[in-house]
Design goal:
The structure holds 2 protein chains of 2 kinds. In chain A, helix 10 packs parallel to helix 11. The N terminus of chain A is likely disordered. Chain A is α/β, with parallel strands linked by helices. In chain A, the strands form 10 sheets. A 7-stranded mixed β-sheet of chain A has the order 18-24-19-20-21-22-23. Chain A is about 25% helix and about 25% strand. Chain A contains 17 helices and 31 strands. Chain A has 5 domains: about 150 residues, Rossmann fold, CATH 3.40.50; about 170 residues, FAD/NAD(P)-binding domain, CATH 3.50.50; about 70 residues, Alpha-Beta Plaits; about 160 residues, FAD/NAD(P)-binding domain; about 60 residues, Alpha-Beta Plaits (2-Layer Sandwich). Chain A starts with 17 loop residues before the first strand and ends in a 16-residue tail after the last helix. The longest helix of chain B is centred in the C-terminal third of the chain and has 20 residues. Chain B starts with a helix and ends in an 8-residue tail after the last helix. Among the domains of chain B are: about 90 residues, FAD/NAD(P)-binding domain; about 160 residues, 3-Layer(bba) Sandwich (FAD/NAD(P)-binding domain). The radius of gyration of chain B is 23 Å and the shape is globular. Chain B is an alpha/beta fold. In chain B, helix 4 packs parallel to helix 5 and helix 5 packs parallel to helix 6. The chains are: A alpha/beta, B alpha/beta. At the A-B interface, helix 2, helix 6, helix 12 and helix 14 of A face helix 6 and helix 8 of B.
Chain lengths: ~675, ~375
Amino acid sequence: MEQAENNGNGDEGEQLRIGVYICHCGLNIAQTVDCARVCGYAATLPDVVVAKENMYSCADPGQIQIKSDIEEFALNRVVVAACSVKMHGPTFMTVCEEAGLNPYLFQMVNIREHCSWVHMGDREAATVKAMDQVRMAVAGVTHARALDNRVVKVTRRALVIGGGVTGLQAAVDMADAGYDVYLVEKTHYLGGLSNQLHRMFDHMEQVSCVVTPLIMRALNHPRITVFTGTEVEEVTGYVGNFNVRLKVRPRLVGEACDCCGACSEVCPVEAPSEFQAGMATRKAIYLPDSQALPNVYCVDEDLCNDCGRCEDVCHVFAIDLSDAARIEPIEVGTIVLAIGAKPYVPGEGNRWSYDGASDVFTSLEVERLLSSAGPTGGELLRRSNGQVPEQVAFVQCVGSRDPDENPWCSRICCLNTIKQACQVKARYPEVKVSVYHGDIRLYKKEHEDFYRLARDQGIVFMRSHVEEVAPRGDRLEVRAIDELLDGPTAQEVGMVVLACGLTRTDDAQKLQDMLKVPSSADGFLLEAHPKLRPLETAIDGVMLAGTCQFPKDIGDCMLQASGAAAKCMGMLSKDSIELDGIISSIEQDLCNGCMVCVKKCPFGAVTTDEVEVEGKMKKRARVIEASCKGCGVCVARCKQGAIQAHGFTDEQIFAQIDAALEEDPGGRILALVCHW
Amino acid sequence: MESAKHRNIELVTNAQVTSVEGEPGNFRVGLLHQPWYVDTDRCTGCGACIDVCPVSVPHEWEMDLKPRKAIYALFPQAAPLKYVIDRERCIECGLCMQACGLDAIDLSQEPGESVVETGAIVVATGAGVFDPSAIPEYGYPEHENVVTNMEFERICNASGPTEGELVRPDGKAIHSVVFVQCVGSRDLEYNVWCSFYCCMASVKGGRLVMEHAPGADVTVFFNDLRACGKGFEELYRRSIDEGMRFIRSMPSIRYDHETNDPIVIYEDPEVGGTVEKRVDLVVLACGMQGSEGTRSIRRILGLERDTYGFLSEEHPVDGLAETGRPGIYLAGTCQGPKDIPDSATQGSAAAAKVGILLSRGERWLPR
């Protein structure tokens, strides 16, 4: 490989002067890695003029040390061996900058997550590995070049994906703060899953008392443009400048609709009502609920047979079955993902005998039964005989905390069961209610009182593992292993309620692919940092809120929504934002116009120029600097070697590979992984 | 670090709010600045002063498990990293003045007052922790090897009293630990509420013990293991798989005065009957409760409290970051016990509400 010129701050022929700092991170690193040995070793590496240890490099004394060394030793390269570059890279880049050194002449090497934390108990091997890592970093930083940050303009508008309670709250907050917001909802109605819920636990307030005013605020807000029946088709661009194509499905019923319902009466097509959790039917032209907002009927395009009878009977001529879907392009600066979650439904052959026809119900079905707008007008009736059961058994953790099904705990089901059990008790004091549970999991200050109240009302909580629910005559037998009695129990009841948790929505994948947002092992969308950045995703400018991140109650959804709104507002408050200098660039003289990079760029960041080559106009690729995320896909794909990723040039990477394999190459495994 | 460096944030530490007047959009907040006795513009946090200070007193940050000097900074990563003199303990020997190369020590400083004008206020004054000495059965603090979860945090911390060595207060290495959950929590005699954070804090603590001392014996005594957050159940399961024991039972504690070992007595559902277990350390998982600081700020701001002693939110569902008083917002454990992500989320939510209020140059009031 050709030896690149060593440049400090971009000046040709400058003598390299490298400073290396080994962080103890308290004992996080020092407990496993012999930092003094690593430091002593670092001092022997070529061009290293100073190597020091710090208790906490990130704390003020550590930072001051680096700054004063840059001055005293005229350092033109800095290596910090500490934690993740995601965590403290910016800290040390700022230190370099404040000391007058271009921040890209700094390299961070992670000897905590990548070394001490994974090699606990093997001090010798960990220390050798840390030395390898430092040697690699020194080799890499030798070839670092000074780079400039990019400044990009910000489109001061936001997109909220999901019109449930979370999306509504996020949209209203941003709009109230003076920003224009597009609110996109897949169905024709706002409110999401919360529409199907009757009361909220703890204070027993009706859900609609919170959600309906919120929907009205969103619909009436001059700064919010609501798109219902709409899905996101395509997202290109980057933080501050997302170009989004929305596909707006026609409602086929105009705003003139006065909800007289004549159309529904004549419609010959019938289907299960999603709103009533399948326990009632609706027509192909329908309003899911009298309170549904916007309060306008809609047509289920997939079911409609175009018979036209509804058009004939509509006295306000609101129906137009010929309306077609349209594409709406919008430009926004930030995006909030509030796509919600999907209630778990036990599959075929489940051990609770749930089939949607027996007297075994899911929690969502019972929510509809208990609602005055539900299929039974608020009566808790058995499917089999239409009677109120004498005894109801709630079964917790259905599909949850189960390694074979959903290993996570859905957080809300215990409270939801306590709420539903209290509602049953309040309406039918004579009905016996028992709850089969593992741990009762509550998490807010007032929850424990609520639980106590439930027990005081005579609801029996049994710490049991339910093995099977089976029909027995016209009743159901719940067979369980009781933890307290340490033995099997069996009880016959008229109704069983399965407390089902939440799972990721079916729409998540499409949006994840478009936005490059990762999910965690449980399928829920992954936050940028579980503790400190719970509202952001790994993608700049894309926030997340509500149950798409993890199951949570309505209050926490609204809180997260406001928090995500604050994160957006922070970005939208400025005309421009600064992005890092780690991007690709293409040497057009080497490009042969194959266009592979254009096709493979996941961010649409490569375009083409018409360039005159030997008298002919030819296509040559060019990177759109503001769009480039520096991922390097184009670099790897380019067979001409025409593309370089700044900050990760071939020289830098090859130098690190050579350094890694300098000693005992047979005894080492070298992995090329992401910039994390 | 981020807030200390932020251009738009002015950190005012070592100060108290003494009065609040005005209305949303135009509050005038009276501040009392306590003297540092150190010129914070000159102090670079070099620490030369602490080396020479002859006064040694218990360090409250380290839960009194370690001494500090009369001149000190709370912890190594404190922001701002400036030293302060505890005048009640200072003997005015002047050694720090001689040692300070920057001439930063100034014992003549007096408390000062100032008024700041602000449109909105966020209360994030945190919570206190239950004091287990109220429950004599646990033998705290008489038994030195029975510690609170906060003390245990310090024992595990690299910059803590043992510099991260897992040794108990009497110096013996720790190989077996018992965590007792719900100490003073979910208890009609003490605090009726559940503090939620303690279950996962003990799971984390147990894992730290197992990492520090491979093969260590870790047992958690609990009522309900409330692992109901993202990834929590998975971590709980993994801990069981890796050998941590969870026993649904509430133990009592005896003490072997010869060896200083606590002996935990409990009903073992697996063995069936009472079991005595000798361990190196018992950690009491103490929950959160309203703090004195929050109580005093509540009176100054005229806010309401709930029946538990935390600050009342405006509405438990759609007003969790707001107080009953417009322009004053809430975040974190002063409103109720919660963990770090929930606190950070509520902090951002409060920021959104403030952003909305401040986004308009004026406010319309009803006539």
